[in-house]
Amino acid sequence: MVIEKGAGEEKPQLTESEELLPLVKESVLGSDLQVLGAAQVKQLISLFGESASKTLVMLHQAIAANDLPEVAKQAHTLKGAAGTMGLMQLHQLCLVFEKSAQEGSIAELDVAPLQQVFDASVAALATTFLDN
Question: Is the pTM above the cut of 0.85?
Answer without folding.
Answer: no
